Amino acid sequence: MYLATCRVMVATPAAVREASPMHRSTTDDLDVAVTLAAGPLAWSDRSETITEWMAAGVVVLGTGIITVDAILSFFVNPYAPLRRWSMVVAALLAAAVLMYPAIVGFARSENSDSLRLGVPLAVLLRISAAVCVVGLWAAHHRGGALVTAWPFAVAAGGDIYLTMQRVGMHMTYRELWTHTFGSEIQLGALVGLVAVTGIGLIDPMEALQLSLAWLVFLGLGLFSLGALRRMRSAELAAMERIESKVMRHERRQRAHWLHDDISSIVGVAKMRLASRDGSYDPLRALEDLDHELRLRQLDELIESGPIQLAEVIQPYVRYAQSLGVQVGGLPGHETAGVLLDRSSAERAKRVIAGAMSNALKAGARSVEVRAVRDDESVTIEVEDDAGGFDVEDLPIGRGLDRLRSDLGESFAIERTPAGSIVRVRLPLPGPV
Amino acid sequence: MASVLLVDDAQAFAELMADALASALDCSMTVVHDPAAVTVDYAASERFDVAMVDLSFANSPLSGLDVLLAISEGSASTRLVILTQGDEWVADLLRMAWEAVPVATALSKNAPVRTIASTVESVLSTGHGPVDPVLAPLLPTERSPLRMASEFGRLVRHRGHAKMWKALIEADGDPSYAELRNATGLRINTLRNYREQVVSELAFHGLHSPTMREICDFAHLARPLLLPHIQQKLDEPVGRPASQEGS
């Protein structure tokens, strides 16, 4: 029953990417409206693409223009002081709220907590900000000056684009226009405008200008949204082409490595076997080949980015095990799971390789690999029972002596009654 | 004579290992290559003394965790041994299996045969064995009781959570809120709230402020551990008080 359940669930095609057509309902529209009203910060979860940075810039620019316009009109229109100052404060607060997602978008790192702004609070703040900004704009502009709504439209378009990207909403142009101009809200606004004109609350010419301004605003907003979407599609296509090229190069490189390195080593092994060299131990040769391949794999992992200490330790533990040497003292995941940057990983590799090589050559029967970490560093120790050596007798310029001169005070060799301890202290990378 | 099950899709390796262990331990070896064949009923009927299980199966949607759980459920007396390459690719799965299931020990496939044989012998006689030194750095020093199989129910508190986790398991890569909405029928804000509710529990699994992708990857990894709880919540009668499903 258990595995049958697993099979049913696992066998279900991963169809979520192929979004099924939505049955549009009032609840769906309300869900979309609340999602967009909450803004991009409420849904932020990933690092931005270049287009999203530009969209954030559009929001900043648009909101900034409206704020400056509102403040400038403060000096042009003779309002009572209290009204003037309250308008300026409202404009600045509204601008801060509307710009906040964009500003955070510029400064945010990938690991920051993205869920700190609750949706209800985000909706409340942003709608309040929008009312302030729209109110300020409407209070200062009449007639032809309504065209100054354009930065608000552009900012709104950018903001909606950012939110849709965060949430993963993808609409075609037809859907965008239909949802906007064919929505119940749009129809309600139009009916409302006709009604207030009909009962004489506003002048018909003013009503016409307001409705035209509203349509221009919507159109500009949709245009901004559409333009940003096109840019993102182009950007994604370019990223995919680059990614594909890089992956092709990587695969070729690996194919070359497989051919050159592995084939040549296997070739040598075949030749020696064919020559019936009495000293040749095929089993030992295969173990050595296995070790060499794992070291090549380790090199690739170190090149690819931060690597866990456990991955550096593993090949040497395997090799010692294959020689019948007891390996103990190993750190658990709490310590060995620590991430090392490339420089520290290289140093760890050199120290462990050097210490293990010396221990194995000197006939160690057991080796301990220990590690201790704190917030800033990890200290690795390799202790063997190979009898020890006089540190001053190390061959100059080679092996452990070379390590001692390269690594300085972070490296130490200590003699013990049974053998020796090689120790290195490595810095940990800072927060990513 | 002791009976040992070996579950590994690498046929050549499995056959050779079975021959070597049968000879070294004087036990009867059964080799199974298809993880789907190891069901709860199979484990209950065969009642092996020891089951050695690989973790990853290239041509199967199931993982070693599925097999370990099935055997654990079917035959509590069967001692479980993980047998794995132990590289970084399976490290997370290894850790999860180690803590979620009562595993006796973990061995590297590349360990000398004599080492594997002596460890299995120790498991047969005492019920536990030394962890392979190669795998020791990948495993926690102590198993956390919060990561046992039964505790995964904390991640699936109600039907809504079950729907969300099911959609995450079925999604690939990096699902968006919109895609999860289409898969579950839940509102976007509801999904967001559900996600916030499980984030604190995910911290016990080493995920701190996880992205949606990380949550999805976790769902894929923990699928065998989540599914029973998901199914239980989905099977519960609809119409429980709304307060139990959150907002």
Identify the strand order in the major beta sheet of chain B.
2-1-3-4-5
Q: Give the overall pLDDT of chain B as a whole number.
A: 91
Give the end-to-end Cα distance of chain A, rounded to a whole number of Å: 44 Å
Helix-strand category of chain A: alpha+beta
Q: Which of globular, elongated, flat, extended, rod-shaped describes the shape of chain A?
A: elongated
**Biggest interface pair, residues each?**
A-B, 62 and 61 residues
Q: What is the global morphology of chain B?
A: elongated
**Helix percentage range of chain B:** 40-55%
Would you identify the regions of chain A where 5 or more consecutive residues have pLDDT less than 50? 1-23, 105-115
Radius of gyration of chain A: 34 Å
Please describe the biggest sheet of chain B, giving its number of strands, its sense, and whether it closes into a barrel.
5 strands, parallel
Helix-strand topology string of chain A? HHHHHHHHHHEHEHEHEEHEE
Structural class of chain B: alpha/beta
Characterize the largest beta sheet of chain A: strand count, sense, and whether it forms a barrel: 5 strands, mixed
Number of strands of chain A: 7
What is the strand content of chain B? 5-15%
Helix/strand order of chain B, N-terminal first = EHEHEHEHEHHHHHH
Radius of gyration of chain B over all CA atoms, rounded: 20 Å
| Assembly annotation | heterodimer
